[in-house]
Amino acid sequence: MNIHEHQAKAVLKSFGAPVADGYAVFSVDEAAEAAAKLPGPLWVVKSQIHAGGRGKGKFKEADAGEKGGVRLAFSPEEVYENVKAMLGKTLVTHQTGPEGKQVNRIYIEDGADIATELYCSLLVNRETGQPAFVVSTEGGMDIEDVAESTPEKILTINIDPTQGVTEADCEELCKALKLEGTAKEDGFKLFPILYKAFTEKDMSMLEINPLIVMEDQHLRVLDAKVSFDGNALFRHPDIMELRDTTEEDEKEIEASEWDLAYISLDGNIGCMVNGAGLAMATMDIIKLYGAEPANFCDVGGGASKEKVAAAFKIIMKDPNVEGILVNIFGGIMKCDVIAEGVIAAVKETNLSVPLVVRLEGTNVEKGKEIIANSGLNVIPADDLDDAAKKITDAVKK
User: Fold this and answer.
1) Which residue among 35, 55, 190, 218 has the highest number of C-beta atoms inside a 10 angstrom radius?
2) Which residues fall in the annotated binding site for substrate?
3) Which of 49, 79, 110 delimits the end of a domain?
């Protein structure tokens, strides 16, 4: 689960991280009041969407201006005008895609005198199975660009979870970021704070870009992006309250209500599979035959007829879907249950696109019999290769 920048900063601030004062506003009327609470003379007006590249982004609407989604203001009146220009408008960045995202809230923050911009993030290093800091002196830039052009400027420091962040770790991090004097002292305080927030709140990613050294040599978290492990959210009701469903795909929201693993993609072939590994293999073979998957959908190992029908209907809500491939290997999941769910969903949705069904495993003959006797236009497949070929051929006709 992702949260907004202002929420991420509030979480980090609760752990003791140095964060500027700021206020989130949801209407133009709140802008002047929020600006008056900050001392100035510089205010930063930031669009809040779940996407990066806001400063370089462009609004679709001409009346929003050409300044992007992050703007500097030098008076409360200018704050008001910027909020008025951006709120409710559609911001397009390199991460939103061409459709962009509507700005429903704006963060007004106290400005900072920046001396140096750094990059600092925390994630789990899959190679070591340990939390790791990823840091660079090239802050304020897209880290992907740094990785491509100057990978030697990105350093990874693994943290032993049995020890936490040690003085040796802090020393290594400060050296990597070239922190000295007051900034180094702040680093020794900040790095354990970030690690504590990361582990205690079950974050999957904590990214600060930029982490700045100010003119007075103190560190400050200038921007923050945080994602949480969805499987651990039951432990954090306070974090669950921060969820903004307006930033999420409606199909993914509905899928979560049915406990389905569903992720929207950009392709034209809808997929319904049981098991993450089989789902990935199904997506791969669809691409092999020249088409693109429209979604990742794992109905799990013990889905009911109702859950299968719900998954099918969610897939059908995607207007880009030109065909559907159902690929089920029945272990705990029985093929006849899958067949009944598919048939029920097809009847309810008045399916108008090709449907290929490949069943294997427990009660497979019974499942095939249910589909064969349904009277519906369903294309049977013998194996995964056959299924992928049939669905890709069907959508090309």
Assistant:
1) 190
2) 274, 331-333
3) 110
Same domain, 259 and 386: yes
Which residues are designated catalytic?
A: 119, 207
CB 302 within 8 A of CB 329: no
**Residue 8 belongs to some domain of the structure:** no
Q: State the DSSP code for 293.
A: B
Closest CA to 338 of 381, 368, 296: 368
CATH number at residue 29: 3.30.1490.20
**Binding-site entries for ATP:** 46, 53-55, 109, 112, 117
Q: Is residue 91 part of a domain?
A: yes
List binding-site positions. 46, 53-55, 109, 112, 117, 209, 223, 274, 331-333
CA 233/CA 237 separation, integer angstroms: 7
Q: pLDDT in tens for each of the 397 residues of the chain?
A: 999 999 999 999 999 999 999 999 999 999 999 999 999 899 999 999 999 889 889 999 988 888 999 999 999 999 999 999 999 999 999 888 888 999 999 999 999 999 999 999 999 999 999 999 999 999 887 788 888 888 888 999 999 999 999 999 999 999 999 999 999 999 999 999 999 999 999 999 999 999 999 999 999 999 999 999 988 999 999 999 999 988 887 888 888 888 888 998 989 999 988 888 989 999 999 999 999 999 999 887 666 778 878 888 899 889 899 999 998 887 767 888 878 888 888 887 778 888 998 888 888 888 888 888 888 878 888 889 999 999 999 988 7
The alpha carbon of residue 90 and the mean position of all alpha carbons in its chain are separated, in whole angstroms, by: 19
Q: Is the pTM of this model over 0.70?
A: yes
Domain that holds residue 186: 114-239
Total tally of structural domains belonging to the chain: 3
Cis peptide before 293 (omega within 30 of 0): no
Buried-state track 133-171, b at ≥16 Cβ within 10 A, e below 16: bbbbbbbbebbeebeeeeeeebeebebeeeeebeeebbe
Q: Which residues of 317-328 are buried (b: 16+ CB within 10 A; e: fewer)?
A: ebeebbbbbbbb
Q: Is residue 244 part of a domain?
A: no
